[in-house]
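Please decode residue identities from the backbone states below.
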């Protein structure tokens, strides 16, 4: 699921359904598609819809990405990059980019998030995440030529969602001139540091809802990776931050560190350009996670207020917990802590004085 969806005009699903059915009927009969089995497969925060249907003994996924709100070309492009690198992603069996339809192989019915919600023994959880870490290292070896850049300018633009939607529209709070200046100074410091990191292909949402549990070796090694169409050239720590600061699943700091260390060791062994000093690497991924989670606070508030999707509010306490965890550790973020306290109605504390 992408957290950077465009504004929400009305989409006529009836017309899309008719066009989709017509397109499927034009495909090669040897694909063996059973159109009578077509059924919704998953939901998405964007305009994309996903359907599942049977094809002989297998199943297939249909992506409906209505233009001009969605563009399938980046998905196709990144799919080829990741397949070449050795990441388990869907194969594209048929496509109509003009209409926004794709027929894909099916990586499975359960995400990591689904299995976590059902309850997992710790041994199984650790096994899944070690596989995810290995997949991330592989993903970061993919070709990055001509990818959009997640540079300082874009990072700081994304952060404006936090004061606009989370502070202003969700909490109904106006920043004082001093708060505004301090927040923008903080944003500049944060994004400049992130943009100075070595760069690789960045998925942007490498976390439990986008990792499929693959149990069929014929499909590929676990996990299957989804929702990578927004991939960019960006900071090497961004995706490990996405994984350990999962907006949908709470991980305690000890667990975050364990997985971050495992990633760091594997990335170094693979020759990826991570810092040789783990203390520096630790700060780098925490700051990348802070930028991401401040952006997500703004996006979740926007999904609730603008798009009538209140379920995203359930995740705000978790994301705020991650933000506070990082902000408490570094003096540069004291103005942010003081602002969060004001939003929460907490009296200012001496350690936040500046």
């Amino acid at each position: 699921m992408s957290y950077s969806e465009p504004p929400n005009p009305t989409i006529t699903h009836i017309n899309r359904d008719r066009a989709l059915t017509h397109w499927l009927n034009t495909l090669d009969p040897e694909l063996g598609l059973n159109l009578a089995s077509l059924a919704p497969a998953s939901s998405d925060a964007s305009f994309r819809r996903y359907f599942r249907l049977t094809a002989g003994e297998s199943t297939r996924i249909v992506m409906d990405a209505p233009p001009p709100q969605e563009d399938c070309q980046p998905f196709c492009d990144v799919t080829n990059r990741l397949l070449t690198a050795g990441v388990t992603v869907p194969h594209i069996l048929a496509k109509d980019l003009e209409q926004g339809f794709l027929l894909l192989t099916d990586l499975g019915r359960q995400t990591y998030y689904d299995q976590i919600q059902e309850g997992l023994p710790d041994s199984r959880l650790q096994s899944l995440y070690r596989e995810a870490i290995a997949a991330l290292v592989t993903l970061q070896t993919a070709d990055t030529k001509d990818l959009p850049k997640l540079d300082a300018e874009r990072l700081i633009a994304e952060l404006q969602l936090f004061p606009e939607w989370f502070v202003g529209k969700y909490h109904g709070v106006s920043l004082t001139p001093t708060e505004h200046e301090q927040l923008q100074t903080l944003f500049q410091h944060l994004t400049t540091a992130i943009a100075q990191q070595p760069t690789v292909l960045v998925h942007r949402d490498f976390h439990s809802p986008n990792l499929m549990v693959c149990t069929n070796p014929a499909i590929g090694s676990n996990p299957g990776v989804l929702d990578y169409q927004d991939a960019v050239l960006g900071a090497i720590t961004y995706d490990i931050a996405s994984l350990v600061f999962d907006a949908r699943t709470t991980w305690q700091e000890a667990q975050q560190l364990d997985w971050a260390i495992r990633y760091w060791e594997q990335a170094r062994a693979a020759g990826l350009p991570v810092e040789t000093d783990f203390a520096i690497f630790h700060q780098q991924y925490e700051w990348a996670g802070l930028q991401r989670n401040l952006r997500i606070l703004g996006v979740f508030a926007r999904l609730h207020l603008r798009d009538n999707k209140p379920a995203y509010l359930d995740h705000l306490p978790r994301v705020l917990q991650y933000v506070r965890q990082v902000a408490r550790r570094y003096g540069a973020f004291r103005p942010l802590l003081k602002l969060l306290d004001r939003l929460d109605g907490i009296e200012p504390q001496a350690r936040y004085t500046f």
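Observation: Confidence is low (pLDDT under 50) at residues 1-11, 348-354.
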